[in-house]
TrEMBL record:
The gene is Alox5ap. PANTHER family: ARACHIDONATE 5-LIPOXYGENASE-ACTIVATING PROTEIN, MICROSOMAL GLUTATHIONE S-TRANSFERASE. This is Arachidonate 5-lipoxygenase-activating protein. GO terms for molecular function: enzyme activator activity; glutathione peroxidase activity; glutathione transferase activity; leukotriene-C4 synthase activity. It comes from the Eukaryota. The chain crosses the membrane at residues 46-70, 91-113. It is a multi-pass membrane protein. Keywords: Endoplasmic reticulum, Leukotriene biosynthesis, Membrane, Nucleus, Transmembrane, Transmembrane helix. It is found in: Endoplasmic reticulum membrane; Nucleus membrane. GO terms for cellular component: endoplasmic reticulum membrane; nuclear membrane. Homotrimer. Interacts with LTC4S and ALOX5.
Length: 138
């Protein structure tokens, strides 16, 4: 909602009309940042749900909240200069990678249970709970 509101505000500020695509460079930056965030959102939701369902809910929820804050940092950084958005982008990639690895670990655990009868769920949850605070390191 914040991103869409910024796009609408910038459109009205630049053109006086609602959502005119042609505008100043500031409108283009806001619009592009909004589109980038919108395109990354389905991937985030997929890995968040997979990590939460297949591995561990608490670290996945923590990583999800961190991702939302990072996308906010990316968006605000993109409004200034594009180089200011780079830390938010890289931080977001690291969180998506963490969620993806949690999903892979959950899938591997499922197949280990299915084929060999070995359950490593407690070990995986312990490891992900220990690693998730490391996401706070920029």
């Amino acid at each position: 909602a914040f991103f869409a509101n910024k796009v609408e505000h910038e459109s009205r500020h630049c053109n006086g009309k609602v959502l005119q695509r042609q505008g100043s460079s500031s409108f283009d930056r806001v619009y592009t940042a909004n589109q980038n965030c919108g395109h990354a959102y389905p991937t985030f939701l997929a890995v968040l749900w997979c990590a939460g369902l297949l591995c561990s809910q608490a670290p996945a929820a923590f990583a999800g909240l961190m991702y939302l804050f990072v996308r906010q940092k990316y968006f605000v950084g993109y409004l200034g200069e594009r180089t200011q958005s780079t830390p938010g982008y890289l931080f977001g990639k690291r969180i998506i990678l963490f969620l993806f690895l949690m999903s892979v670990a959950g899938i591997l655990n499922y197949y280990l249970i299915f084929f060999f009868g070995s359950d490593f769920e407690i070990h995986i949850k312990t490891i992900t709970s220990a690693i998730s605070p490391l996401l706070l390191i920029p």
